[in-house]
């Protein structure tokens, strides 16, 4: 069937066609144009997520009351051979298209048309099977108790990822404010910057509810994680301000990183110093704040910090600093 170069499901308010014949046409289309939505690099404005093998309803979102045509992809198929393992069946009820026994060949973009006018479109995607552990896919951390935190999505086959905070996102509501990736990190995954409304001065009683959606081929993965902000605190590396020589010791003064919350009298940090002895190269660690006394006979040192009240993750170590006096 030819229709201005497009493959049509030929559903309107006035006509229907045999369900089996329609199924065969669609499979023929996919044999000719296997791309579909493979490699989607963004989230469609409208999509429906279905479980494989279940039924799903697609809606032509329009106020138009006349006859219209459903289309799937954009290739002409003159004939199609019967394929035994293709079982998807279509049925139109008013402005809805019911897709039964959803499987891979039926996934992609569906649109409804009135003549040459495109009325609306919807992508049909399938819910991803259980895969990697969510914690292995995504890591989040906060440099301070201020209003933002960061997340990295691990490198993989996913071509589009987005994150959302709150119950609106975890429950899939239209009011969810999704955050798209701010770019790819060095390992090839996705990185995100998110904002929250928690007060840094109040006791934290409510968990953050973070939902992630990721697309791979026609599959969409959705996972939700709940955590306290304090559980992802990881300061940046501190600053070694001074090494003051005393009679038998060195007094090392350390400042918090510039990104750490203030005032520092309220948001305190403890510091761990690792140093190497000159005589035998032995490495020793000692904890203190804001200054630490260590032996004079050392060759080099480095420092890291954490929040002692919640025993947060340690920051990254500063580079090794040579000690001369």
From TrEMBL:
Question: What keywords are annotated for this sequence in UniProt?
Answer: Cytokine, Disulfide bond, Glycoprotein, Immunoglobulin domain, Secreted, Signal
Q: Name one Pfam family in it.
A: IL12p40_C
Q: Specify whether S-adenosyl-L-methionine is a keyword of the entry.
A: no
Q: Which residues cross the membrane?
A: none
According to its record, what are the GO cellular component terms? extracellular space
A molecular function annotated in GO for this UniProt entry is: cytokine receptor activity
Protein location: Secreted
Q: Does the keyword Oxidoreductase apply?
A: no
Q: Where is the Interleukin-12 beta central domain positioned along the sequence?
A: 136-215
Query: From what superkingdom does this record's organism come?
Result: Eukaryota
In this chain the Immunoglobulin-like beta-sandwich domain maps to: 50-112
Whom does it interact with, and what assembly results? Heterodimer with IL12A; disulfide-linked. The heterodimer is known as interleukin IL-12.
Task: Quote the PANTHER family the UniProt record gives.
Answer: INTERLEUKIN-12 SUBUNIT BETA, INTERLEUKIN-12 SUBUNIT BETA-RELATED
Protein name, entry field? Interleukin-12 subunit beta
Which gene holds the coding sequence for this protein? IL12B
